[in-house]
Every structure is written in C-alpha cells, then in structure tokens.
Amino acid sequence: MEHSERPTTDPATTAGAAHSLAELDDRVTGCRACPRLVAWRESVAADPRAAFRGQDYWARPVPGFGDPRAAVAVVGLAPAAHGANRTGRMFTGDRSGDFLFAALHRTGYADSPTSTDRDDGTTLTGIRLTAPVRCAPPQNRPTPAERARCAPYLARELELLAPTLRVVVTLGAIGWNATLSFLATSGRAVPRPRPPFAHGAELFLPRDTGRPPLTVLGCYHVSPHNTFTGRLTEEMLDDVLRRAGEVAATGG
Fold it and tell me: Which residues form the Uracil-DNA glycosylase-like domain (predicted)?
C-alpha cells in the first residue's frame, strides 16, 4: 500500500535546502517521494491517449512556471495526467490550461493566449504558476498523505518569492487551504478559525517583521467541470486576475 511504502525522497529536506527558484525547480523534478504517484505518472506516459501517441511525455514532477520576481502567484491543485504531466509546464496542454492562459493574456500577464509545450517560448510577467502537489494523481485526487508530503515544495517556493510577492490567487479549496496552512506555519497572522474558501474571497494579511503585506484571493478552479457549466466564466476569472494586479500595484 502507498501509505506503508518508505519514500525515496524527503521533500522537507530537499526543498528547504534550495537557495533559489531554479534550484528548487531542479529538486522538484527529481522527486520520487510518493510511490503511487510515481507509478501513475509513468504508466500514463507509457500508454498515452491516442491523440498524444508518439509524444515524449515529461512524466516527472512539474516545477512552477513564470516570473521569478512575481508579485502574483497562482496556486492550483496538481498537474493533469495528459496536460502538464505530458508537457512539463504547469497548466499547459489541457483545457484547464487553455482557459487560464487565455485569461492571463487578456489581463496582461502572458505574452501569448496559448501554451502548448514547455519549449514554446511563452513567457509570463509579474506572475508565477504553481501547485501544492507536483505529480499527476489518479482521478485528480491526491491523498492527504501525498498532499502533506509534497507541501514543503510549495512552502519553499512561496518563501523564495516573498520579497516581491503581494498576492496569491488560489484556484479551488485545496489551493486555498494549502496556502493558508503554509502562511500560518510561517508565522503569518491567519485568522482562527481559518476563513473558508469561496470564489471572490479575499484575505488581507498585514505587514509583519521583515515581510510585506500579502493578500490571498479565492477563485473557482479552471477545471472543465467549472468552465463548461458556467460556474467559472471568462469574466469571473479576468476579474480575479485584474483584482490581483490592482492589489499588487497598491500593496493591498
């Protein structure tokens, strides 16, 4: 069983030892800490969908992507099996990514409305995309143990972004809760009980010793379930991203 297998990597150790985002990204891509996720991501690559046969799948943990001096971070859930697990870039190669990148382009963060591959030349300005789980999980459902094991990577990423980071946009409840857990652990004055996730939720954390103010914004996830049903529209996502830009520009 996954829970009884001994991890082959310790994210808490490897993440904490990273002194830059580039070093952290390198450590993320070499992680094999969760046997169930390692087996799944590699089995997907070995038997891809017909539309992707012949393509060389990334089939490794996916690092964050974007501006290393970002004022805004977007925190999702996990790579998609035939999306980022295939392309090697967060929110790239699937419908969720298509929806997000189009919005990033409309709101001025991306130089292209599409992102198809980690080598397509797309660049982001002022924003970085990341997730609390770095491997594609079966049925898009990482276990609580897998989320906890992977958490140090997001924590260290947000620490390294801290000098410029002013806003975290969380896509869905898992991103919201993972972000608030890190902030509380790092000593930020997160309210207790913690505010629940909601689309449009906004939590302002004031400046503390050595750290600038930070605002956490809630947004429905860009999953096809939400976008196809109209639960999350283009206008709703654009509003959140524009709000993030406003807060980042004014410092809250």
Answer: 63-241
